[in-house]
């Protein structure tokens, strides 16, 4: 086999809006808006530095079907630059940027291959000597919702000895965190005879299996607290003996974190504030060149929880942490900037739940139910649904609730349990005094 090198990338989501972020200044909001474009620039630089033979992009290039002019022009520039280096691009459209979207067409260029709504195949060549190295097949989303199993349309050319790459935007094995578009199974992909499935749609990168390779590259820039950790692409080397080497490269310019901080052993606000500030500094040291966004999650049990539960203590620290970063941003420094997205409570009061569980009281009853729900997903789901039912008749609230995962909704249940415990204990204490 003739050795060659390519980049597998997906889900660029150019010009993502980063809505729902609180407290940002215009400068910071702009920096976030720029991040998907910065990641695109990193991608281009990497392709040229690594002298790849071609690049495959597995859908969701644009964030929205009616892509912005800026997204379109940036992509156009990027592709022209790759063209000057003789790097070909093979791309499909996904559920966010389907073919029927009101979109500007990419200028006709010989080195850009956009797949249509029916399966197509191209022969890819090596950049220098133009030797044929791979068959690349792909299919784009004609509309935003593709519910049929289009993976079944990929069939290896039995006559060809070239390396076979399939580009697909699909939900393999029904990942519950994403829409089940182009549903298919790992077994079906394996049976198709392709050597490398370059997948898009799931934003968390993952090598599902090797030889044949079935790979999600993940997105190139995290866009919410659900998309934490490094984001980037794979540089794939196919060697003479047809073995394969993959290297992940970070491309993101803003990175998301979920950091847990235990309040165990902390009994006053000052100690707590210092512990949070230490964590902020630790992330600053970790990423001195780039901006980070963090959701701080309080865990553990201590007497401090009561204070935090009052709300203003938490929001004051949130605002103070943000104020410092806003000052940094105004001076034009985004390196080492640590933005606190929010402080979220998963901590609890210092009670012995085992003791309380035996209590013949409303509180005891509530804790027994909570413990039961922790061990029984169906029960937890039922309790959450019952609690949310009165809100569901409002369309707007229903839409907002729909954006939260099952797990997040269950976290509300446990938060409600902790809040209930505080209120009931306070009431009991008051009752005692009267
Ligand atoms: Mn996507």
Automatic annotation (TrEMBL):
Any one GO molecular-function label of the UniProt entry: hydrolase activity
Keywords: Hydrolase
Chain ranges passing through the membrane: none
Ranges of residues in domain Calcineurin-like phosphoesterase: 4-204
The keyword Hydrolase belongs to this UniProt entry's keyword annotation: yes
Listed InterPro entries: Calcineurin-like_PHP (IPR004843), DNA_Repair-Maintenance_Comp (IPR050535), Metallo-depent_PP-like (IPR029052), Mre11_N (IPR041796), Pesterase_YhaO (IPR014576)
Classification via PANTHER family: COMPONENT OF ATP-DEPENDENT DSDNA EXONUCLEASE (PTHR30337), PHOSPHOESTERASE (PTHR30337:SF7)
Protein name stated in the entry: Metallophosphoesterase
Annotated source species: Paenibacillus antarcticus
């Amino acid at each position: 086999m003739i050795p060659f090198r390519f980049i597998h990338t997906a889900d660029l989501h150019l010009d993502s809006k980063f809505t729902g972020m609180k407290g940002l200044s215009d400068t910071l909001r702009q920096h976030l808006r720029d991040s998907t474009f910065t990641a695109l620039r990193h991608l281009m630089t990497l392709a040229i530095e690594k002298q790849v033979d071609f690049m495959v992009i597995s859908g969701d290039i644009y964030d929205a079907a009616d892509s912005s002019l800026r997204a379109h022009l940036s992509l156009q520039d990027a592709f022209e630059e790759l063209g000057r280096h003789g790097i070909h691009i093979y791309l499909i459209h996904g559920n966010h940027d389907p073919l029927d979207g009101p979109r500007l067409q990419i200028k006709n260029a010989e080195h850009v291959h956009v797949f249509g709504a029916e399966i197509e195949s191209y022969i890819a060549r090596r950049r220098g000597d133009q030797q044929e190295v791979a068959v690349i097949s792909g299919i784009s989303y004609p509309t935003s919702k593709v519910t049929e199993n289009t993976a079944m349309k990929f069939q290896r050319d039995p006559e060809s000895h070239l390396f076979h790459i399939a580009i697909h935007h699909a939900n393999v094995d029904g990942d519950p965190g994403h829409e089940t578009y182009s549903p298919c199974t790992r077994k079906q992909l394996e049976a198709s005879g392709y050597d490398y499935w370059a997948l898009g749609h799931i934003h968390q990168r993952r090598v599902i299996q090797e030889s044949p390779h079935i790979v999600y590259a993940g997105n190139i820039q995290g866009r919410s607290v659900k998309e934490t950790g490094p984001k980037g692409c794979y540089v794939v080397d196919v060697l003479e003996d047809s073995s394969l080497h993959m290297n992940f490269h970070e491309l993101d310019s803003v990175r998301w974190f979920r950091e847990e901080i235990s309040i165990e052993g902390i009994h006053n606000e000052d100690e707590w504030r210092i512990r949070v500030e230490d964590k902020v500094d630790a992330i600053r040291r970790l990423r001195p060149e780039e901006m980070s966004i963090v959701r701080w999650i309080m865990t553990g049990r201590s007497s401090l929880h009561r204070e935090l539960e009052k709300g203003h203590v938490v929001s004051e620290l949130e605002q103070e942490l943000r104020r410092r970063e806003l000052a940094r941003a105004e001076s034009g420094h985004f390196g080492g900037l640590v933005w606190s997205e929010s402080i979220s409570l998963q901590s609890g009061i210092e009670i012995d739940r085992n003791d309380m569980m035996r209590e013949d009281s409303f509180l005891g009853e509530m804790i027994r139910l909570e413990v039961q729900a922790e061990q029984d997903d169906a029960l937890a789901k039922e309790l959450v649904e019952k609690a949310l039912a009165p809100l569901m008749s409002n369309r707007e609230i229903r839409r907002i609730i729909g954006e939260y995962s099952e797990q997040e909704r269950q976290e509300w249940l446990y938060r409600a349990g902790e809040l209930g415990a505080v209120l009931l204990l306070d009431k009991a204490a008051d009752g005692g005094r009267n």
